[in-house]
Structure formats: structure tokens, C-alpha cells
Write a structure and sequence with these properties.
Strand content: under 5%
Shape: elongated
Structural class: mainly alpha
Number of helices: 8
Helix content: over 70%
Order of helices and strands: HHHHHHHEHEE
Largest sheet: 3 strands, antiparallel
Amino acid sequence: MEKTASYKKIRSESDVSLCVLCKAECLSEVSNTAGPVEAKEELLDECESIWKQMEECHSKLMLLGTETLLPSDAKLSLLMLRWKALTVDFHQWQARNPEVISTNPDVLLELGKEELQKVKNDLEMVLSTVRSKNKQLEEELKREQQWYEEQKQMLETLNKMEEEANTEDEHPSTKRELNVLKNKVLKLKTFKKELLSALGEFLDEHFPPPEEGENIKKKNSSAEPVVELITLQEILEMLINTLMTTPHEPYITINESFWPPYIELLLRYGMALRHPEDPNRMRLQAYHK
């Protein structure tokens, strides 16, 4: 009991001394500024007094030594005593009023300036972050507005085509023009298939698919499941389809199925461009603009 009470008393004194020592450390920083000499001397004397109290508390704690293990009943009693001591410390900390660091107006003025400077720096950092976020949102808004205008124009065009289709009975020439337009679309689709077929043959001849050894090498170097690499033709088709279907967001994500030499080839010869903010995304060069 006496040992626990002594431990509680010294611990309380040590906590108070640590708290005051932290305040003294803050004041020592203020003392380095251009303040009155009397205020500096007053702070130094206070710091020396606090340091002496810390040394006395440390000596008392060293004299207490380590506690020996007790039987189970004695351990429970000791834990209850410690719990009561911690409860008393908790109520003391709750009832304690903030201590005035110093009554010297010059010291208080310097401390106030330092706190205001910290608040100013924090607010400037928050302001910079908010401005950067607003800039990104403005850019996204511009892209969405552009996409909206394109979709609006497309809708207007489709509405006009629907109106013309509804009046084709009254104007036979319109029906003939529509048939001609359909034939042109079919020819374009056929031409597109021929181009893709020719592109596939060219790529298969000059840029064959990644060999089986690449997948085996990946499997030996990693415990994860093997990812099947896609061909250069599939990569180009993904880029072309993404550019034509979503021109406002033409980027695709580079994943493990993309063979790195193919990606390097497309980027080096200007056929594809990386995203300015995300290196794991790329798009096809807009040759049609």
C-alpha cells in the first residue's frame, strides 16, 4: 500500500513537471526572439526550477525499484488500487484550470504572434489545396460541357433524320436519298472490315503475338496467376473504338495484359499519348483532327 501510494504521488508530481516543462520549452523558443532582457531572465529562472523538480522526481522513482510478483489475490488488490489512483488522477486533470504561462505582456505578445503565424501557414496550405481542387473541377466541367454539346448536336441530327423519314411517303426523292445513304454506310462498313483485316494481317506478319515464353517467364517470376497477353491489333482496336465512341474521354487503362514493348512502340512513334496526370492511361493520337 505504501509503495503504491508513493508511486502515485511521484507519478502525479512527474506529470505536472512534464506539463510545465513542455510549456517552458515553448517559452525558451520565444526567449530567442528580440524581447526584453528581463522577460528572458524570468523564463530561464522558471525553466531551471522546473528542471530541478524533474530531477527530484526521477530520483524518487529510481529509489522505488521494481515490484515483485504477488499471488493472484494480492495482484487483484493491487490492480484495484491502481485503478482508484488513475481515477483520482483523471478527476484531478478534469478539475484543473489552465495555468497561466507568464504574466509578462512581452512574452504573451510573442506567443500570440507565433500562434497566429502557425494558423496563417495552415490556412494558406488549405487555400492552396482548395484552389488546386477547384482548377481540376473546372477542367472536368469543361470536358463534360463539350461532351454535352456533342451529344446535343448528335440528338438534333437524329431528330432531323427522323423527321425526314416520316415525310418520305410525301417526298419519294427523300426515300431514294435515304437508300443511297444506307448503301454508302454499308460500303463504309465493308471498307472498314477490309481495312481491319489488312491491318491484322500486317500486324501478324511484322508484330507477332507475344510468345509463350513471356507468359512462362511471368509465371516463374511471380506467384500470382498468369495473365494472358493481348496482341497489338487488339490494343489498337481498343484505342480506336474508345476514341470514336467517347471522344471526350478517349483514354484506356494499361493493365497487366498489355505487353510493355508494344506500349513503348506506340508511345515512341507518336501513335499513342500518355495521360498527363496518370501514366497508366493512354489514348490514340487524334489523326482525324
